Amino acid sequence: MIGKRFLSGLTAAAMSISLLTGCGGTPVSNSADSKAESTQSQQAAGSSAKENEPVTLEFWNVFTGSDGDILREIGDNYNKTNKDNITINMDIMPNDTLQQKLPAAIATNTAPDFVLFGVENLASYVKNDSLEEIDDFWTATGVNKDNYLKNVVDLSHINGKMYGVPMQYNVQYLYWNKDLFKSVGLDPETPPKTMDQLAEFAVKLTDPSKNQYGLVLPTGVTYMQFLWANGGDADDPAGNKNLLKSAENLKTLSWLQDLTVNKKVTPMNVSGSDADALLQAGKVAMYMSGPWQINGLKEQGINFGIAPCVSGSAGAFSPAGGCSFVIPKGTDAAAKQGVYKFMKFWLTDDILKEWSQRNGFPVWSKTLLEDKDIQNDQIIKSISEATGIGRSYNLGYALSSQIDKDVMIPMFEKTITGAATPEKILNEASDAMDKILSTSK
Amino acid sequence: MNIKNIEEFHPRAQKCAYLFIMPSLIILTVFVFIPLAASFVISLLNINIFMNDISFGGFVNFIKLLSDGRVLNATINSFYFTLLEVPVQIGLALILAMYVARNSRYTKMLRSFYYLPFICSMTAIGIIWSMLLDPNLGFIPYLLKGIGLESVSFLKDPYLAMPTVIAVTAWKGFGYTLTLLTAAILNISASLYEAAEIDGAGAWKKYTHITIPGIFSTLSFCIVTTTISSLQVFDQTYVMTQGGPLRKTETLVQYIYDRGFQTAPYDLGYASAISTYLFLIIVIIIFILRKFILNRGETVNE
């Protein structure tokens, strides 16, 4: 009797143990291992003070496009050639995924050693005290801060403190397909300059029978350039002020809805990546996007031009952005030194030149601006004018990504798809904006 | 009856039974009871994912919830999904179960085929269907073009997106319901049908008077479990639409995820408050279903 009872107890115990190990064993041990490794390398670096202890740096970034291949190439090259025994382990993922993984990773101390993402994300991380402050970067590495354009370096500062090292700088351009312009009798060398011209050209270039559209306006993004062009704006971060409800904005939204719903110049319900594909396939004539289109268009053999964003009654503006290297809180000192070395490597003119020339990104190093190859580069020449009208939006504002997601993106999506009248859309957006701004105290 | 007899009636071996339920009890405690209690507690806090700066907020999150238009929208979407998905899935399974509830080699093969989507991961299925239905490079819009329908964008059209997600979910899930129902139908004694035939009952009479009552308890079980899982729908909308277009497919769990993990300020407290709200909705619905369906199923069986 006792034997039976003992046996059954043992079975039950064995079952529960095996189930538990089956569930959670592997991931737990994994993270523990990697932590042990990193502390080991830290100790080694600290005690012997030798520079050549191997350091492996985990690096997350959002470069999923063709520029990611070039970034990987530069990273691999660095791994092979650097004399500090640093190995960069690159993990590329879409921005959405990264923004979902990183906060939890930082909170649980499993974050990578450094990350590369858009500067618009900086503020909310800084507000939660989850990025390392790197004010000592310039002195620690001996890189000359004054050699880089101040407006670009400033993108990585929040409240006067530096949290990121700039990696690239960009604004949105207007791309146009010269062959399509020619086919409808427009001058292939004259892109639209004003919003009215943009509308006029777009109508001419739209031919539903050929599945060809004049302009592509993907949803899921914002079109600040149109609001600014007519003198409107979304909000004023300095005074927490809601600027949405204005006659200028109403005019812009009405113009935009007329263009998409009545004149039907854009394919409906396309995402950003769909729009990229349509432009590369020669199915749309005009598209506003960043420099990352250039490589894809070259590869597809599209005969394209790059122009500044169109102007309205108040001038022409283009949303400026950029990407920065940042170091999550909790990265240990040895790894941080390694990251500084890679950042310094990135800021050399050789790398910046390669990046600008191969990807069509604006140059922001003063010594590089005087470089002959750069001065003679056709694409870089044509983007310099387009880059001049860059304007940043809600930069350094902790609420910026929430405003984008909950107010601006839905507002433009509803306008473009014609879900409601512009008045109603603007009122709803303004109410949503009030709600978000009221949380900032 | 004396005390000794009672002891014999509850023999000590029962203690061993606790050991046997221990494996599932531990798992349930770790993965269900503790998280459940934790989310109640978290919903009363002001807390974000970075876990610094935590403070007690009382019912602030719940008050915020009542005036949040996206919660209302998500609630409507979740109910829309449930009210359409449950009947479609159960109905499809019921009709096909009648057909495959025979033990020939052909019907056995069919049953396996119908079960196949259920064992696949929703993520993989979601991605495959998104590609098949993509208006630019999808196979199905291409076929539709062949019969003269111009570029239908199933998952990107505000009015078609939810029905499309429902259709894919029903397609994936009906095999499971079908298997349960088929087993129940095969369990009904053949003598009942014979007796009915002798009494001159037709196929429809046999179906409504023998088959349906015979499988009612299984059927009601299916209805309850499908309803619960429909109210908790997440994977399919997350993979196929991300809640868009125009938030027409943003269900409650999708919104919880968005608030807690997708959008700054990653407000875990608020996300937990919405989870609690969803929990209460599901509890109420189960009580209603118990009263009208589960209990009836039991009386029918008696």
Task: Give a description of the structure.
The termini of chain A are far apart. The model of chain A is unreliable at 14-49 (pLDDT under 50). In chain A, strands 1, 2, 3, 6, 15 and 16 form a six-stranded mixed beta sheet that branches. Chain A is an alpha/beta fold. Chain A folds into two domains: 51-162 and 322-347, 3-Layer(aba) Sandwich (D-Maltodextrin-Binding Protein, domain 2); 173-317 and 389-437, 3-Layer(aba) Sandwich (D-Maltodextrin-Binding Protein, domain 2). Chain A contains 19 helices and 16 strands. Chain A has helices at 2-48, 66-81, 95-107, 122-127, 137-141, 150-154, 178-183, 195-205, 224-229, 247-262, 272-280, 293-299, 333-346, 349-359, 366-369, 372-375, 378-387, 400-417, 422-437, and strands spanning 55-61, 86-92, 114-118, 157-158, 161-162, 164-171, 173-177, 213-216, 235-236, 241-242, 284-289, 304-307, 311-312, 315-316, 318-326, 390-391. In chain B, α4 (69-100) runs antiparallel to α10 and α10 runs antiparallel to α13. Chain B has a two-stranded antiparallel sheet. Chain B has 302 residues and is mainly α. In chain B, β1 (45-46) and β2 form a beta hairpin. Chain B has two domains: 1-42, no CATH class; 61-301, Orthogonal Bundle (MetI-like fold), CATH 1.10.3720. Chain B is globular, with a radius of gyration of 24 Å. Chain B is built from 13 helices and two strands; from the N terminus they run ααββααααααααααα. Helix content of chain B is 75%, strand content 1%. Classes of the chains: A alpha/beta (441), B mainly alpha (302). Chains A and B meet through α1, α3, α11 and α18 of A and α2 of B.
